[in-house]
């Protein structure tokens, strides 16, 4: 773990895409000794979110910055807007989607931090020209990161 503080300006951070969505890593897991990672995520409107799934090791926190995001967790559905927070503990079935007509943006926090690599891997499963992700690649990622899809 580094003993140095980290300061990033607006728009800074390591960037990657997840289909039509964009992510920017703000705090890498390595900087926190693996305790957590922080990212900014921009979800395109009209694009479905992930299938209902469970993480058996990681908890997630979402802080909505702009737009409208619908979260489903443990059988509850909540529409969140700017300033709202969603916390999803380990083992809870959940999903999310941008339900508005504009991009939605949030800060996400994974604990433990290594789960940022799951999101990056999902991004790599999408073909460069668009289209659905590689299901075999997703299955391997989910197994590696203790994540399972849940029937709706």
Oligomeric form of this entry? single chain
Q: What count of helical segments does DSSP give?
A: 2
Q: Total domains, how many?
A: 1
Query: CATH architecture, please?
Result: Sandwich
Number of strands: 11
Low-confidence runs: none
Helix content: 10-25%
What is the name of the CATH class?
A: Mainly Beta
**What characteristic shape results from the CA principal axes?**
globular
Strand order of the largest sheet: 1-2-3-10-5-8
What is the CATH H-level superfamily? Jelly Rolls
Structural class based on helices, strands and sheet pairing: mainly beta
Work out the radius of gyration.
15 Å
For this structure, the CATH topology is Jelly Rolls
Summarize model confidence as the mean pLDDT.
94
N to C succession of SSEs: EEEEEEEEEEHHE
Strand fraction band? 35-45%
Beginning-to-end CA distance, first to last residue: 40 Å
Q: Could you give a short account of the major beta sheet?
A: 6 strands, antiparallel
What key attributes describe this structure?
13% helix; mainly beta; six-stranded antiparallel beta sheet; 2 helices; three-stranded antiparallel beta sheet; Jelly Rolls; 152 residues; 41% strand
Written account of the structure:
With 152 residues, the protein is mostly beta strands. The chain has a single domain, classed as Jelly Rolls (Sandwich), CATH 2.60.120.10. The protein is built from 2 helices and 11 strands, in the order ββββββββββααβ. α1 packs antiparallel against α2. The termini are far apart. The model has no long low-confidence stretch (mean pLDDT 94).
């Amino acid at each position: 773990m580094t003993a140095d503080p980290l300061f990033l300006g607006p728009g800074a951070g390591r960037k990657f895409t997840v289909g039509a969505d964009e992510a920017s890593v703000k705090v890498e897991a390595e900087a926190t000794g693996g305790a957590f990672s922080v990212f900014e995520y921009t979800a395109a409107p009209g694009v479905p979110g992930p299938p209902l799934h469970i993480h058996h090791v990681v908890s997630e926190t979402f802080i909505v910055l702009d737009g409208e995001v619908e979260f489903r967790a443990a059988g509850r559905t909540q529409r969140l807007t700017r300033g709202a927070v969603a916390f999803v503990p380990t083992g809870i079935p959940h999903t999310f989607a941008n339900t508005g007509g504009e991009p939605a943006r949030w800060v996400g926090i994974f604990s433990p931090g290594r789960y940022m690599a799951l999101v990056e891997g999902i991004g790599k499963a999408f073909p460069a020209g668009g289209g659905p992700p590689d299901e075999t690649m997703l299955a391997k990622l989910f197994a590696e990161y203790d994540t399972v899809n849940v029937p709706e």
